[in-house]
């Protein structure tokens, strides 16, 4: 099969033929229909993710069609499915309690295992997969990737965002835009922060009540003023100290900060305004992914038209275009996300 392979950090991915994947007993082989390109992939591409080494095939935001099913899998050839990026064991105490995102023996395609920048992917532990509704296109499904699911779990499973509350979103990339759209669907009032005027305008068009350019100075103080005392919930969607502290500082007393952006490599440890956490008695949550059992409810919201996630998709690219998309993460990005939908070119 054809795949895009990381040969050296910060170098173009090499498109080459590799052996077809083998199906595990509890898994399936998918023909990849689409795969999102995520900032987490960029962390691996630049060498800042400890599980991504030269020789890796990136890609963790995928959907596909079953072309082979293992004897312990409940899926059939021809089924269309979408995958969470965390493939949990389903047996440990955490999985049994529904907290599959903290499974201690989780497997993650693209991070230590072959990913979906390829024509086919082997997906073990296929009990994690969800059926892809006919009404959702493969491109949109891949665009949901880890960004929409992570944002949904951050807002509902961690922060318990309520109607009428103020939500601040720091960084309007894929996760930030997802949090904006989903937050509004939950009845929240949303303010956003970025450094790209085009992205701020895009967010306003999608329903943000205010959009702040972080380059203009103390963005936290401006959010506190605009929201009449501070946000109730704040999402940090970049994984860097500047936005993490702005997220904490913009909260009102008893507010909830959710760390969604991935702090890794040189940002794995950062200096945080802990006095603000103490004095305002804030709650600080980490979040990563979404439990697989929550997929049907999220997909149902989309198929019923309760939320429209299509504004998230900015462009589709062939497999040969993945390297350029990864390089683009080195600078502020335009609105929306890219999805690979052609694995031949």
Automatic annotation (TrEMBL):
Residue stretches making up the Enoyl reductase (ER) domain: 8-340
Instruction: Tell me which InterPro entries the record gives.
Output: ADH-like_C, ADH-like_N, ADH_Zn_CS, ER, GroES-like_sf, NAD(P)-bd_dom_sf, Zn_alcohol_dh
Domain of life of the organism encoding this protein? Bacteria
Coiled coil residues, start to end: none
Q: Which cofactor does it need?
A: Zn(2+)
* Record key words, sorted: Metal-binding, Oxidoreductase, Zinc
UniProt lists the family membership as follows: Belongs to the zinc-containing alcohol dehydrogenase family.
The protein here is known as Alcohol dehydrogenase catalytic domain-containing protein
Organism annotation: Fuscovulum ytuae
């Amino acid at each position: 099969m054809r795949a895009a392979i990381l040969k050296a950090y910060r170098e173009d991915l090499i498109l080459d033929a590799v052996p077809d994947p083998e199906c595990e007993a509890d898994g399936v082989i998918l023909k990849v229909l689409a795969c999102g390109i995520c900032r987490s992939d960029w962390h691996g591409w630049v060498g800042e993710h400890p599980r991504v080494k030269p020789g890796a095939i990136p890609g963790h935001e995928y959907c596909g069609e079953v072309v082979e099913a293992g004897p312990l899998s409940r899926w059939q050839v021809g089924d269309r499915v979408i995958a969470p990026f965390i493939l949990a064991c389903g047996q440990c105490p955490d999985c049994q309690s529904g907290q599959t995102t903290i499974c201690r023996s989780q497997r993650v395609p693209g991070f230590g295992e072959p990913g979906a920048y390829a024509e086919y992917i082997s997906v073990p532990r296929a009990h994690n997969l969800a059926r892809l509704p006919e009404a959702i296109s493969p491109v949109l499904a891949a665009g949901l990737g880890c960004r929409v699911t992570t944002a949904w779990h951050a807002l509902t499973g961690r922060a318990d965002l309520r109607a009428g509350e103020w939500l601040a979103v720091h960084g309007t990339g894929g996760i930030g835009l997802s949090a904006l759209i989903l937050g509004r669907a939950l009845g929240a009032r949303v303010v956003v922060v970025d450094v790209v005027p085009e992205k701020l305008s895009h967010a306003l068009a999608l329903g943000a009540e205010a959009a702040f350019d972080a380059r203009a100075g103390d963005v936290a103080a401006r959010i506190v003023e605009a929201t009449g005392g501070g946000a109730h919930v704040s999402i940090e969607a970049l994984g860097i100290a500047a936005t993490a502290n702005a997220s904490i500082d913009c909260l009102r007393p008893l507010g909830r900060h959710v760390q969604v952006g991935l702090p890794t490599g040189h940002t794995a440890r950062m200096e945080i305004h802990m006095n603000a956490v103490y004095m305002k008695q804030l709650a600080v949550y980490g979040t990563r992914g979404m439990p697989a059992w929550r997929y049907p409810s999220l997909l149902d919201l989309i198929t019923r038209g309760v939320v429209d996630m299509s504004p998230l998709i900015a462009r589709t690219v062939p497999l040969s275009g993945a390297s350029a998309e990864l390089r683009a993460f080195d600078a502020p990005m335009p609105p929306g996300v890219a999805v690979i939908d052609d694995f031949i070119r």
